[in-house]
Amino acid sequence: MYWNDMREFLAHLDRKGDLVTVAKPVSTKFEIAAYIRKSSDTNGPCFVFDDVEGHPGWRATGAMYATPGRILDALGVPIDQVTRHYIEAINNPVPWEVVDGGPAKDVVITGDDVDLATVPIVTHSEKDGPFITAGVQVAVDPDTGVHGLGMHRMEVFGRNRLGLWAPNERRIGRARLKREERGERLEIAVVIGPDPCTVLGACARVSHDQEKYAIGGALLGGAVKLTRCETIDVLVPASAECVIEGYIEPGDTQMEAPFGEFPGCYGGRMEVPVMTVTAITHRSDPIFQTVLTGFPVTEDHLLNWVPMNAVVYEDATRVCPGVIDVTVKGNYVYEAVVKMTKRHQTEPWNVMSAVLAGNAQAKYCTVVDQDVNIYDDREVTWAVSTRSQPATDVHIFPVMVGAPLDPSAPLVRQTSKMGTDATKPLGAEALRYEKVLVPGADEVTW
Ligand SMILES: Cc1cc2nc3c(=O)[nH]c(=O)nc-3n(C[C@H](O)[C@H](O)[C@H](O)COP(=O)(O)O)c2cc1C
Questions:
Q1: How close is the Cα of 62 to the center of ligand 1, in Å?
Q2: Where do the domains of the chain lie?
Q3: Ligand 1, from 137, 205, 304: best to mutate by most atoms within 8 Å of Cβ?
Q4: CA distances from 365 to 71, 333, 359, 380 (A)
Q5: Domain 300-424 carries which CATH code?
Q6: 78-288 sits in which CATH class?
Q7: Which end of the chain is more exposed for a tag (fewer CB within 10 A), N or C?
Q8: Are 151 and 137 in contact (CB under 8 A)?
Q9: Which atom of ligand 1 sits closest to the CA of residue 174?
Q10: Which protein residue has the closest C-alpha to ligand 1 atom 25?
Q11: pLDDT digits over 65-95, tens only?
C-alpha cells in the first residue's frame, strides 16, 4: 500500500470520514491525549488539531492508529490476511533509495537555536511528564552497519535534552551499549510522522541483523526514500514531518517521570540515557504526531498488534503445521489466541507451550478450533466456555520469563503462565459442539 507520506494517509482517512479536524485551541497538556483516549474507547476518529496552544506554525495529529481498522487501512489488507501479509514483508524486504533533501528538511534548526519547547510535545496521562511517544528512533549498529529502528518513549528534560527508554535487548539500546563499551557516543535520529508502513516496519520484532527500512519498503510495495541527517551520519525518511538529530554520550543519564505504560499501570521510575539534540528539521507547515499509551486499548497496543502476531505465528507454526491464524489481544502482549486444525489430541499443548515460551513473551495462550473467529472476543470466550474443562484443559506453567511490566510478577519478567486448550476433542460428537447460527443473518439490512 504505497503512501508517499503521512499526509496521504490522513487524506485517505478524511475521504473515508474517519478524520476530524479540531479548530478550537487545544493544550499539549492532557487535552490532546483526552481526545485520543475518548476516540480509542469509542472506536472514534483520527484527529488533526489545527491550533495547538503556544505552538504557532505547528499542527498536531493523534489517534491515527487507534482502531484496528486504521491499521488494516495503512497496510491495505483484510484482517484474516494481515499477519501473513506482514510475515511476507519480513521475508521479502525491499531496499530503500537515498535522495537529496526532502520535505523533512524544509526548515533546519541547529546549535543554540535548538529548543524542544517549540515542538508541541504532549503530556498524556495523569502522572506523566511531556513525552515523545510516536518517535521512530534510528541508530546505526557499530558492528553490522544496520540502520536500527524502534519506537521508544522520550521525555523532554530541557531545551536540547531528551530521555530515551530503550532497554539493552532492543536494537537501539544494544547499539547504545556497544558504543558506551567503546567509550563512544551513539548518533541517533528521532523521526516524527513518517509514512504509516515505515512506522509499522519499525515495530517489527525480527533479528537485529535485519534492516527495518526494507521491511517498511515491502509493506509499502516500493522503496522508502531516505535522506541524510544534517549533523549526524544517519538516514531518515525524506518525507517525515519532523526529525530530531543528536547523540547519546556514555554515562549521561537522568531520572524519568512515571509513565502510563501499556499494561494500563505505571511502570517504576527509571534512570534513562539522555540524548543531546544537535538539530531539529521539519516541514514548513509541520504536523506533530503523538500516540497514546496506557490503559488498553490504545494506539501503542495496536501498533504492536500485527508485529506481535507475526512472532506468535512463527513460534506456533514451528511446532505445528495445523496452525491457521493467530492474534494477540487484551494489552496485545500478555494474551495470545491461536486457531488451528488439530490432528492429534494433545497438539494444542505443544502449540501453547511454544507460544508461552516464545519471543512474544505472552502470559496466556488460548487455542481454538478452525470454526472460531479469533478476532471476536465473544467467540473466543464461547469456545473456552463450551470446549474446555478447567480440570483437564488448563495448563499452568509455574514460572517462565515473560510479560514485561507485569505488576503482579513476583520477580521482574518472571511470571507464571497459563495455556487453555479450548478445542473440542478429536472424534467428538459433532452436533454437540456446533455453533448455533441463524441462516441469512449476515445479509440482513435495515
Ligand atoms: C507507540 C509505541 C511505544 C513504544 N515504546 C517503547 C518504549 O518506550 N520502550 C521499549 O523498550 N519499547 C517500546 N515499544 C516497543 C518497541 O518499539 C518494539 O519492541 C520495537 O519492535 C523495538 O524493536 P527491536 O526489538 O527491534 O529493538 C513501543 C512500541 C510502540 C508501538
A1: 18
A2: 78-288, 300-424
A3: 304
A4: 23, 11, 13, 11
A5: 3.40.1670.10
A6: mainly beta
A7: C
A8: yes
A9: 27
A10: 170
A11: 999 999 999 999 999 999 999 999 999 999 9
